[in-house]
Design brief:
Shape: globular
CATH architecture of the largest domain: Sandwich
Protein name: Ig-like domain-containing protein
Oligomer: single chain
CATH topology of the largest domain: Jelly Rolls
CATH class of the largest domain: Mainly Beta
Number of helices: 1
Pfam families: CUB (PF00431), Ig_2 (PF13895)
Keywords: Disulfide bond, Signal
Strand content: over 45%
Organism: Pocillopora damicornis
Largest sheet: 5 strands, mixed
Number of domains: 2
Strand order of the largest sheet: 10-17-16-13-14
CATH superfamily of the largest domain: Spermadhesin, CUB domain
Helix content: under 10%
C-alpha cells in the first residue's frame, strides 16, 4: 500500500500543531469586581467560553445576571444576558473588544476562558435559539430577543412589518406596546449563501 503524499502528511502535522497552539492560547478570564474588558489584536475577535453555576432554582432571582457586550463599555451592542441556573455559552465579538459586566447582586460562581480568533476564522450565523413566541408588557418598555450565533458576531437585521428598524450586532430590540396591534416583527442574519430569518410573535401581558 502506498504511503500518503508528502503534502498530506504536512497538512496533517500542521493541523495538529495549530490545534495544540489554539488550546494553549485559551486564557482564563481574570477575577473582576463589576466589569472587565477583553481585547484582541487588530484583525482578530474575542471568543468567550462562559460557565455559570448557581444554586438558585429560579432564574434571574434578585437581579443576578451577567451581560456581555460587543465593544468596550456599557453602551456597546448587547450580545447576551445570562442569569440563574447552570449554563455554558460561547460568545463572540465582531471586533477587538468584548465587555463583561456582573450585576451588583451577582453572587453565583462564574468561570470563563477566552481566545483571540483571526477574522478569517468564521462560523456560519444561525438563529436556532430564537424563540418564535415572546412576551412583552403593556405600556412599558419591553424587549424582543434574537440570540444569533456565529463568528464573528453577526449583524442582526430587525424588521417591523417588513421595514428595517435596527441593524447591529445587538440581540435585543426594545419596544413599547400602548395599544392592541398586529405589527409583525422578525430578525435575520446573512449567511454565505442565504438569509436566515425568524418571525417573532409577541404576547402582551
Amino acid at each position: 500500500e502506498e504511503s500518503p503524499p508528502v503534502f498530506s502528511r504536512f497538512f496533517f502535522i500542521l493541523f495538529a500543531v495549530l490545534s495544540i497552539l489554539e488550546a494553549r492560547l485559551q486564557r482564563v478570564v481574570p477575577r473582576f469586581n463589576l466589569s472587565i474588558l477583553l481585547q484582541a489584536p487588530k484583525g482578530h475577535y474575542v471568543e468567550l467560553n462562559l460557565t455559570m453555576e448557581s444554586s438558585y432554582l429560579t432564574p434571574c432571582i434578585d437581579d443576578e445576571y451577567i451581560e456581555v457586550r460587543d465593544g468596550y463599555n456599557k453602551s456597546a451592542n448587547l450580545l447576551g444576558v445570562f442569569c440563574g441556573g447552570n449554563s455554558s455559552v460561547v460568545m463572540r465579538s465582531s471586533g477587538q473588544n468584548l465587555w463583561i459586566r456582573k450585576s451588583v447582586h451577582y453572587i453565583s460562581r462564574f468561570r470563563g476562558s477566552y481566545a483571540n480568533k483571526t477574522l478569517n476564522f468564521t462560523v456560519e450565523p444561525n438563529l436556532d435559539k430564537v424563540a418564535g413566541t415572546q412576551f412583552v408588557l403593556f405600556n412599558q418598555t419591553s424587549s424582543l430577543w434574537c440570540p444569533a450565533q456565529g463568528a464573528p458576531a453577526p449583524f442582526i437585521v430587525w424588521r417591523k412589518n417588513g421595514r428595517v428598524v435596527q441593524n447591529s450586532t445587538s440581540v435585543k430590540y426594545q419596544l413599547i406596546i400602548t395599544e392592541e396591534n398586529t405589527d409583525k416583527y422578525s430578525c435575520e442574519v446573512n449567511g454565505q449563501d442565504d438569509v436566515d430569518k425568524k418571525e417573532i410573535r409577541f404576547v402582551t401581558e
